[in-house]
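This entry is listed as follows:

___
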Amino acid sequence: MQLTKNMRGALFMAAAMAGFSCSDALSKTVIASMNAGQIILIRGIFTTLFVYLLARRMGALRSWKVILQPMVALRIACEAIAAATYITALGMMPIANASAIQQAVPLAVTLGAMIFLKEPVGWRRWTAILVGFAGVLIIIRPGPDGFTLAALLVTACMFATAARDLATRCISNDIPSLMVTMCTAVSITIFGAFCIVPFGGWQPVSTTSLLEILLASVLVLIGYQSVILAMRTGEISFVAPFRYLSLIWSTLLGMIAFGEMPDGWSMIGAAIVITSGIYTFYRENKRRAAERMAQQAEARIPA
């Protein structure tokens, strides 16, 4: 059977989400024997090496001065916060719950685009955003003592990831994507080194843990490249919702590798978040289609 471009794009996105989820599972495995700073440092070293070789082969290396550009620097800072908070949270809560909260990132991006980039957001998407965040609260379910530390960490990761994506939109097209990734990888590695002492100090690293982090780095790189292929192969409105497959992967990995069984409320909250996100994608695609039709109509009007 010959696959359409959208179907190929969907398969690339599914592969990307599988890669990210497996990488998270490996990070959750090693967080029991070392702190998040160590994991970020070691994983960063491997990732930096892989990205450097790829960027050099593709001629994407540029002057390191690009790191001084405000949006590049902001993206790096947000990536660092997201990595530290998420890896730490993985050691304190089920991987499926952490992944479910992360599914609200597209909603947070839409909200941030409206606030900071002045993109128009109608009442329907506003409603979807509010309903989606209500789903996040169902997943977290703060008790009488308030939010748990793990919930706060993964929520902070969600907003940091959204801010990273918004900053990425504002980076000049003259800077190759691989160069941005390279700057990010180097900076995150240095950040991880500084986090080791505050996070509890250096712990012995076994050969098994080292190999697990190496595999996690490879899976992250595969995930990033698969996302790029997905977005360039299929229509964004068709491909983007397949990001939510990461929740299925994370749930299965949590059950198989860690014996974590998601409860009913978490699944209900995740379903609400995913439904809200898909509806947001739908409304965004409809708005852009209307804008394209309006532009085409104006172009046909004689001067």
Notes: The mean pLDDT is 86. Residues 264-300 form the longest helix (37 residues).
